[in-house]
Amino acid sequence: SFSPQFHSLGFNGNFLLPLGNGSSTVCTAGFHVDDFFRWLDEFQPTWLLTVPAILREILEQSSHYASVNNWSSCLFFGETGSPLPLPLAAKIEDSFFNVPRRIYTDL
Q1: What is the C-alpha to C-alpha distance for residues 83 and 74, in angstroms, rounded to an integer?
Q2: Rounded Cα gap, residues 55 and 104, in angstroms
Q3: How far apart are CA 83 and CA 79, in angstroms?
Q4: β-bridge partners, 103
């Protein structure tokens, strides 16, 4: 989780929800797109829940990280805070997933 723990997304969505379902979670000191792709490779997450602005930045920077841009472990992604614009959602699904695997939640 690179969301602040004082925010409902950070604590509820990216910390309590996975732990309550028997999963593990990784907490970082914040979001840095350079680190994100390294973390993707290192931790092999099964899901990603974040805000649309971060998803947009990941998509925009993904071509610079083709060597570590391995989403094979990630089963789905989700956004919270506000709905992801449909064209951006479609680009993310096309770029990182074989089939649409998107959720929206308002934590």
Answers
A1: 20
A2: 13
A3: 7
A4: 78
| DSSP character string of 50-98 | E-HHHHHHHHHHGGGGGGG---TT--EEEEESSPPPHHHHHHHHHHH-S
Helix, strand and coil content of the chain, in percent to the nearest 5, comes to 50, 10, 40
> Which pLDDT tens digit goes with each residue over 75-104?
777 777 777 888 888 888 777 765 446 565
Q: How far apart are CA 93 and CA 76, in angstroms?
A: 9
Asked whether 68 and 40 are in contact (CB, 8 A), the reply is: yes
Which one-letter DSSP state was computed for residue 34? H
Tokens 């998803």 sit on residue: 55
32 Cβ contact partners less than 8 Å away, ≥ 6 residues apart: none
Question: What is the four-CA torsion angle of 92, 94, 98, 103, rounded to 10 degrees?
Answer: 40
pLDDT digits (tens, 9 = 90+) for 39-77: 888 888 887 778 888 888 988 888 887 776 667 777 777
